[in-house]
Amino acid sequence: MGLELRDLGYTWVFAPDADTTIGPKDPTIGTRAPSDNPEYAGKAAAAATRGFLAAGIIPTPKHYPGHGSVTTDSHQELPVQEMPLNELKATDLQPFSQVVEAGTPTVMLSHIAVQALAPDVPASLAPQVYTFLAQETGFNGVAVTDSLGMGAVTNAGGSPSVRGIQAGADLLLMPADTRLAHAELVGAINDGSVPRERIEEAAAKVVALQRWQQTTMDGIPVPGQAGQLARQGAKQLSAAAITQVSGQCEGPQVSDGIRIVGGSAADRAQLAGAARAAGLRVGTGTTIRLVQTGSGSGDVVVALDWPTVLAGSAGSRATYALYGQTEGAYAALVDVLTGAAPAPGGMAVEVPTVRTVDC
Prior knowledge:
Structural class: alpha/beta
Shape: globular
CATH class of the largest domain: Alpha Beta
CATH architecture of the largest domain: Alpha-Beta Barrel
Low-confidence stretches: none
Radius of gyration: 23 Å
Number of strands: 10
Number of domains: 2
Order of helices and strands: HHEHHEEHEHHHHHEEHEEEEH
Distance between the termini: 29 Å
């Protein structure tokens, strides 16, 4: 993925997500989180961080100190994290220690209020949170805010840009009005509410990171077939991730044809293309239901996003968690349905009322 981004001209990516989700009650992060298990989430985020660095891409693990366990969407309003600090260290904070150990040069701070650190203040605007990040993990790289156009900070009072820099941010992501943000910062420097040294510190960190990235990138050539290699890698990842949740493990789930229902038109078209490429008839045969939200029934039900949607598919012959909607994911699904490949993955989150099979 990192080399493909390089091939497309990118140098920096605001990923990976290092949040630990609480499942369906999490309205914001969802399947962007690697897992509902902080240890697994940390391992996945740290591996992605190392991969981006190895490709010469700047990674930015997010959303410190963890957005997956709050039930309010920070795009709209301020989520409040009531968890005691000792519990946060054992859950939401754990993956961020792992990405710092993996060498991330940047971390993105979220717009959630952590009552144990800075009550009722978005973390991205709270000096206590930046200090805690440095003291707890040893992180001394570039601190990035989440988008400053989100409701949690636009409704927080004052200038989010000025407050972010004052708190310890080195880079302000997507202010709602960039010209206004610039004018506010210039005014704050002129009136002394933002010390010039703070701006110089932030600028020096960002410039140093850019120079480091350029030097690193120069030593890591991008292969000529980066896009093709990325697509092959994506299919391999999908084949390793697809999980059989229920049903008979061995043998094909379809015979010579499938009928595709559910999902979007693009989902159905991609699955149809993969099926035809494998020699299957499309339009009649085993009913394959694709589910992204809600629930549904069919001979075989495939969760495209949250595996929790499979809780309503108890009567189906087999159910699968696909964890993706790419060309490679649908090709991997067809391989499983035809019996050409197993479904070796595991559940990233716990699904209430669903007992998974061990294939």
